[in-house]
Prior knowledge:
The protein has helices spanning 4-32, 39-66, 97-112; strands at residues 68-76, 79-86, 89-95. The chain has a 3-stranded antiparallel sheet with strand order 1-2-3. The chain contains 3 helices and 3 strands; from the N terminus they run H-H-E-E-E-H. It has a domain at 4-66 and 99-112. It is α+β, with helices and mostly antiparallel strands. Helices cover 65% and strands 21% of the residues. It is elongated. The longest helix has 29 residues, at 4-32. Pfam families: YhjD.
Amino acid sequence: MLNKEELKLVKHYIYLPLLRKVLEYDNQKIKETNLKFTAPYLLLIEKTINQVSLDLGKVKKEMLRKGITVYNQGKGDNVCKYLIVCRGYRENMNLFPHLMKNEVLEYMEQYLS
């Protein structure tokens, strides 16, 4: 069974790559637009992507130290399924995509504020 700190690590491990993917997509879309000044937006997004990557690296190191492994088991029945292995215990986590989207939005707001 995961404690609060371990659950927080697992959620960061799941959501930070999703946030990075969204930011990379947005970065590409801004490059393709005809905005008068794209450079400030691109710089902000690239700095944020770099920070997210650094934070994800720290999360991975901490998970390794604590012996936590997360396996993405794909999607089914409108949920994203994950298997978490921690200290020999196995725990399933099912996340709804629309709630995951809201969570990624919250992460984005934190990083961009």
